[in-house]
Amino acid sequence: MAYLIDRLEQELGTTNYEPGSRRSRTWLRKKIKDLKPTAQTVMADRERLKNSAFIGGMYFFYYDPKHKKTLPYYDTFPLVIPIEQYPDGFLGLNLHYIHPRQRILLLDSLSAYKTNTAYDEKTKLKLSYDFLRRATFAFQATPCIKRYLFTQVNSRFLEITANEWDIAIMLPVEQFAGATSNKVWNDSRKKF
Predict the structure, then answer these.
(1) What residues pair up with 94 in beta bridges, in sequence order?
(2) Which of 80, 163, 184, 191 has the fewest CB within 10 Å, making it most exposed?
(3) What contacts 27, CB < 8 A, 6 or more positions away?
(4) Nearest by Cα to 96 from 192, 171, 164
């Protein structure tokens, strides 16, 4: 991930586009497509792997659902923002379940609830399931709410710092089993 981030940040710095702007996100989407990232290249950043995920952070990890035989489809490489912790796992927003354009809109809405304005390693999102149920943008998050069991996590958690959120949500590294990304995104759009 560090390789991708460094390369993208370096090239973005030469464009005069303001980070987070529509123009910079359009540029970023095209650049990411050119780089052809994979789950393996993202997880290669060993220094940033954590043993656990914290509420309000953003993480990539490998996952093998316990009840996969009964699921129509599932993501084996989720990009999740945990919102509630349980003794055996956590509830989180897996952003891969919505199209990258909807991810941008949802992240923009969620960013109003960040812990600070620094967009650094200390920046998290102040979220909970109860908060999301009452939020005006809850319809955007509904298809993303998923339950994860610690026993089914097959890797350490790759933490994505706030200054990298825009890049992470655009990476085409979702790994759905049982359906294509387009099928999942179309089903999620119906839930809106």
Answers:
(1) 80
(2) 191
(3) 12, 15, 17
(4) 171
Domain boundaries, the chain: 48-191
* 3-class secondary-structure state, position 73: coil
> Model pTM?
0.89
The CA distance from 28 to 12, in Å, is: 8
pLDDT (0 to 100) of residue 119: 85
Q: Is the torsion defined by CA of 129, 50, 114, 122 positive or negative? A: positive
Mean pLDDT, residues 21-38: 78
Q: What is the pLDDT of residues 124-170, one digit of tens each?
A: 999 999 999 898 888 889 999 999 999 999 999 999 999 889 889 99
H helix intervals, the chain: 2-12, 22-35, 39-43, 100-110, 129-134, 138-141, 165-170, 181-191
